[in-house]
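User: Can you predict the 3D structure for this chain?
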Amino acid sequence: MEVVNNLIIGFVASFIGVLIPGLLNLSASKIRIQEGASRAYLFSIGVSLVVIAQTAIGLMLAKYLNKEPELLLQIKRIAVALFFMLSIYYLFFAKDTRIKIPQENRNSHTNRFFAGMLLAAINLFPFPYWAYIGVTFSELNWLSFSTKPFVTATIASGFGTFATLALYIKYFNQRRSARIQKLNLNWLIGGVTGIVAIITLFGLLS
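Assistant: Here is the predicted structure, written as C-alpha cells:
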C-alpha cells in the first residue's frame, strides 16, 4: 500500500506542479510547433530525468526535517512569512514580464535532450516543492520514506512531469502558446504562493 500511495503522490504532485504555464512547458510546446514532436519529446525526457533527481533531494530533505520537529516548526513559520511576502510582491510590485523561450540549435536532436536537462537543472522550485510535499503527506501518514516507496515516488515524479509536458506538446497549438506567453504570469505566481501560505498557516494553527 505504501508503494501505491507514493506512486500516486509522486505522479499527481509532479503533474500538478508542472501544469502551471512556465518556461519548461511553454518551451516544450514551442519546440513542438517549430521543430516537431520528436524533438519536443526528447526535450521533455531530459527535463523529466532531472526532475527525478530533484524530487529525491527534496524528499530526503523532508525526511531529515521530520526528524527535527523544532527545526521544522521554525521553517514553517519562516515559510508562511516568506510566501506571504512573495505573494504580495508578485501581485502588486513585480515587473510585468513575459516568458521568452530560449532559442537552441535545431541541427541536433541531442541538443534538445540536454537543453531540457539544463533548463530543468536551473529551475530550483522542485527542491522546496518536494520538501513541502514530503513533510505534508508524511505527517498525514500517506507518504513513506522507506527505500522502495521512496524510489517509487521519485520515478513517478518523472512520469508525472513527462505526462504534463506531453499534454502541452499535443494540445498547445501556435495560437494557444502565443496567448499564454502574453499573460502576466506574476499574478498566477502570486496567487499560488498566497494559497500555499494560507494552507501552511492553517497547518500551524491546527
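The two ends are 28 Å apart (CA to CA). Residues 2-68+98-184 form one domain.
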